[in-house]
């Protein structure tokens, strides 16, 4: 359950990427997961061992016969830079192929400034200045992105309309660059290294300033016809108030941070957040009934106060599920800002594993750098 399939890469790249995502595996297990012959796996791993990219680890426990020799990455095969762009700051991280965080930096940023992307490029350059084999740069933003390999962004929170973020960063950095919605990036990181490793079908809901959704189906992201799948925050749930998008009664307008701050000035905060939890629980139950995921992961800044959201959510969510879904696991994740940037790096690290659709030529370049 939960194995990655659909890997479009050379055997060498596929083996490195799979070891990065799954951890130590035997040659037999690599062959099974990747659909390669044992002879091919043996030949490729022999070269990787000689190059110092892979190492032999402890033998796996055996129920009889000779224990299998496990292989793992040395830490040298590759790394990625991930950047989360927000309205007033950017967070950048350097992440190894196996998901290990190497460094993190945060800088102030004015997303509306003409030189905003130059500032982001300088942050990337500082993070990329040391270490071998940089595979590429992932960038995540609050908004709709046409395709990760193109990176044209429409973002109301950033004040961007048809911003060619991908092209501008590629020109400044001379590196492969992938750009996607921030919750999509978070879901990729969950799929590769987090709570989603055991599932091929799950949803990630992020609640904070707004409300976002990412859908993973059959092991890969669902992006929709225009890249806008997951605009869950703009699902109508009430007659009012008016949302920043101009419509009335969007989920984001009811449970987003700005609305809740205003309401807590007039009412008991515990009551306000419990009511928000009830609205959110009902809305997520509707998603579960429609999409049929195997698990729900809730993230975002709101989870820092989940003890106040929980009473409303725990009553509302199960009450609106259909019978087949009444035992679906819901996991609430601890939160810190670097998770967004770690997810952005996951856009690059997940490309050789076939998790991220729409990478195009940028994806080809990332796979070539890992080869």
Gyration radius from CA atoms, angstroms: 21 Å
Question: How much of the sequence is in beta strands?
Answer: 15-25%
Which CATH class of the largest domain applies here? Alpha Beta
CATH homologous superfamily of the largest domain - what is it? Answer: ATPase, nucleotide binding domain
CATH architecture of the largest domain: 2-Layer Sandwich
The number of distinct helices, counting runs of at least 4 residues, comes to 12
Organism: Thermopolyspora flexuosa
Domain HTH marR-type: 11-55
Family: Belongs to the ROK (NagC/XylR) family.
GO molecular function: DNA-binding transcription factor activity
Summarize the structure.
It is built from 12 helices and 16 strands.
Describe this structure in words.
This protein has twelve helices and 16 strands. The chain is of the alpha/beta class and 371 residues long. The protein folds into three domains: 11-73, Arc Repressor Mutant, subunit A; 79-186 and 338-370, ATPase, nucleotide binding domain (Nucleotidyltransferase, domain 5, 2-Layer Sandwich), CATH 3.30.420.40; 197-332, 2-Layer Sandwich (Nucleotidyltransferase, domain 5), CATH 3.30.420. The protein has a five-stranded mixed sheet. Strands 14-13-12-15-16 form a five-stranded mixed sheet. The chain is globular and about 65 Å long. The two termini are 27 Å apart.
């Amino acid at each position: 359950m939960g194995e990655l399939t659909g890997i479009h890469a050379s055997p060498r790249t596929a083996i490195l990427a799979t070891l990065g995502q799954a951890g130590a595996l035997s040659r037999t297990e690599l062959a099974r997961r990747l659909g390669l012959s044992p002879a091919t796996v043996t030949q490729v791993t022999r070269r990787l061992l000689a190059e110092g990219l892979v190492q032999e680890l402890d033998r796996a426990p055996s129920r009889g016969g000779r224990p299998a020799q496990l292989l793992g990455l040395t830490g040298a095969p590759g790394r990625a830079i991930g950047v989360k762009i927000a309205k007033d700051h950017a967070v950048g991280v350097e992440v190894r192929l196996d998901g290990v965080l190497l460094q993190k930096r945060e800088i102030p940023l004015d997303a509306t400034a003409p030189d905003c992307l130059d500032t982001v490029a300088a942050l990337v350059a500082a993070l990329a200045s040391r270490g071998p084999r940089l595979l590429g740069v992932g960038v995540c933003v609050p908004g709709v992105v046409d395709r990760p390999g193109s990176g044209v962004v429409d973002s109301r929170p950033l004040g961007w309309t048809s911003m060619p973020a991908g092209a501008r960063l590629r020109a400044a950095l001379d590196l492969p660059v992938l750009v996607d919605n921030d919750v999509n990036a978070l879901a990729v990181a969950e799929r590769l290294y987090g709570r989603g490793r055991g599932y091929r079908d799950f949803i990630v809901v992020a609640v904070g300033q707004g409300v976002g959704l990412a859908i993973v189906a059959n092991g890969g992201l669902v992006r929709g016809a225009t890249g806008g799948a997951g605009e869950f925050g703009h699902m109508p749930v009430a007659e009012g108030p008016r949302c920043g998008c101009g419509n009335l009664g969007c989920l984001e307008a009811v449970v987003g941070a700005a609305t809740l701050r205003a309401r807590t000035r007039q009412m008991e905060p515990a009551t306000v957040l419990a009511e928000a939890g009830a609205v959110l629980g009902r809305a997520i139950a509707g998603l579960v009934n429609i999409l049929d995921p195997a698990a729900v992961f809730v993230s975002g800044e709101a989870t820092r106060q989940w003890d106040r959201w929980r009473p409303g959510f725990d009553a509302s969510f199960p009450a609106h599920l259909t019978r087949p879904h009444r035992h679906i696991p819901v996991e609430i994740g601890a939160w810190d800002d670097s998770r967004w940037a770690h997810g952005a790096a996951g856009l690059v690290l997940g490309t050789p594993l076939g998790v991220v659709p729409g990478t195009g030529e940028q994806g080809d370049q990332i796979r070539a750098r890992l080869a």
